[in-house]
Specification:
Layout lengths: L2 H15 L7 H8 L3 H8 L2 H26 L5 H14 L5 H14 L3 H26 L3 H4 L2 H22 L7 H18 L4
Helix pairs in contact: 1-2, 1-4, 1-6, 4-5, 4-6, 4-7, 5-10, 6-7, 7-9
Length: 198
């Protein structure tokens, strides 16, 4: 394993164990078995390294959730969306350390234009990947959907972010994936019955 990969792996460990704000360059060197100069050479700064590690973790998370959703091949797009939501919310415990580090990074971003731009890029990439998964679930109907998959991707990200914050603060009261999907199904059924279209 080269220094770049070792640094990313060490950064992931530091994010999960120490968090974003408390991880120092020396922590990263110790966790990766590299040296201080490697951070600057490969990433330019400690912050860029940590941001790349957060991005890689969220990419891994998004891919995993997408694989679960697409594994239900005979499911409708709505059923695939439900599988995605359940998988996303039920994986919070596994990704807890990264989620906390991400919240810490967002708090720092207001005073760092570079960090803000990097996190915005992370959101843009994540939104594009989720929209791509939605288009894949629509199959032949994807072209007719226009920008709907992009908007739905933002909706799913907002739900995930909001429930994640609730879960980080009060995991006992935050809904799990099954509860959230059940509530959404109930709301949609009520709305369709109460306010029929046409």
């Amino acid at each position: 394993m080269g220094h770049r990969e070792a640094l990313l792996e060490g950064a992931r460990t530091c994010l999960e164990e120490k968090g974003y704000a408390r991880t120092t360059a020396r922590d990263l060197v110790a966790a990766s078995g590299t040296n201080l100069a490697s951070i600057g050479y490969h990433f330019g700064s400690k912050e860029r390294l940590l941001n790349q590690a957060i991005g890689a973790a969220f990419e891994e998370w998004t891919e995993r959730v997408g694989e679960l959703a697409s594994s239900a091949k005979d499911a409708s797009p709505l059923e695939q969306a439900e599988v995605s939501l359940v998988a996303m919310l039920d994986s919070f415990e596994e990704y807890r350390g990264v989620m906390v580090a991400f919240v810490e990074a967002i708090a720092q971003a207001e005073r760092s234009p570079e960090l803000k731009a990097q996190l915005a890029d992370l959101y843009r990439d994540c939104r594009a990947r989720i929209a791509q998964m939605i288009r894949a679930s629509l199959g032949d109907d994807a072209d007719a959907a226009g920008s709907v998959p992009d908007t739905l991707a933002s909706f799913f990200m907002a739900v995930c972010d909001g429930i994640a914050l609730q879960w980080l603060l009060d995991p006992e009261r935050a809904p799990d994936g099954e509860e959230l999907v059940g509530a959404l199904r109930g709301a949609l059924a009520y709305s369709a019955a109460r306010f029929p279209s046409g």
